Amino acid sequence: MTQSLADMRRDYTRDGLAEAQAPGEPFALFHQWFADAVNTEQLPVEANAMTLATVDADGRPHCRVLLLKALDAHGFTFFTNYESAKGQHLAANPFAAMTFFWPALERQVRIEGRVEKVSAKESDDYYQVRPLGSRLGAWASPQSRVIADRTELEDMVKATQARFSDTQPHCPEHWGGYRLLPERIEFWQGRASRLHDRLNYRLVDGQWVRERLAP
User: Fold this and answer.
1) From the candidates 14, 145, 163, 194, which is the catalytic residue?
2) Is residue 8 pLDDT above 80, yes or no?
3) pLDDT at 90
4) Is the pTM of this model over 0.85?
């Protein structure tokens, strides 16, 4: 390595986050921050990219990057193969955590809560607006399973294309959405000297409690 990891640092000076800027519930603030991320040109196109953490049946954590595909007053929705590794984790332990990081804005949002499957209609509605290649891929790929090589995957795609050559693919039963129902949402704004602003929302008896956390 050409540079010591211990010497790699960046001071955050762009903005602050005061209680006066934060509403009593977290969804309005998330919508505002997400809109800021979408409208910030320096950010990647996929401002909805997030890290999703799940825990398997043995208590081991796993992380991967996914895309948020829906957000409403109930929670945060993403889609995947129900038979994938993350699907198996959620079947065994239906809790997860999400992290959004928008470096150009020096902001991070952490979300934790219970996860449930969305309705079959919600899954089908989203499936039908996906590009054809993605719809076929949901059928073709045995997600998270070991395959011999790229050729095997390409052969499975060709077989799926042939299967649906005369009809549009419908949403597979093994594919669909999950909604994370938040119980905790933390908004992190980078500040100078690592004295960051952290406003945390906790759901207590159906009401959001806002509190400041030490950096």
Assistant:
1) 194
2) no
3) 98
4) yes
Q: Evaluate whether 189 touches 200 at the Cβ level (below 8 Å).
A: no
Q: Which of 215, 178, 192, 135 is nearest to 14 (CA)?
A: 192
Enumerate domains of the chain plus CATH numbers. Answer: 19-128+174-212 (2.30.110.10)
- Give the separation between CA 79 and CA 29, rounded to whole angstroms: 24
**Which tokens is 160 given?**
């799926």
Mean pLDDT of 159-167: 94
Three-class SS state of 200: strand
Please name the residues in contact with 3: beta carbons below 8 A apart, sequence gap of 6 or more: none
Whether residue 1 is predicted with pLDDT greater than 60 in this model: the reply is no
CA–CA separation, 178 and 170 (whole Å): 19
Q: What is the pLDDT of residues 9-47, one digit of tens each?
A: 777 778 899 999 899 999 999 999 999 999 987 766 699
Which residues line the annotated binding site? 9-12, 64-69, 79-80, 86, 108, 126, 130, 134, 143-144, 188, 194-196, 198
Question: Do 99 and 187 form a contact (C-beta atoms < 8 A)?
Answer: no
| DSSP at 22 | S
Per the annotation, the verdict on 194 as an active-site residue is yes
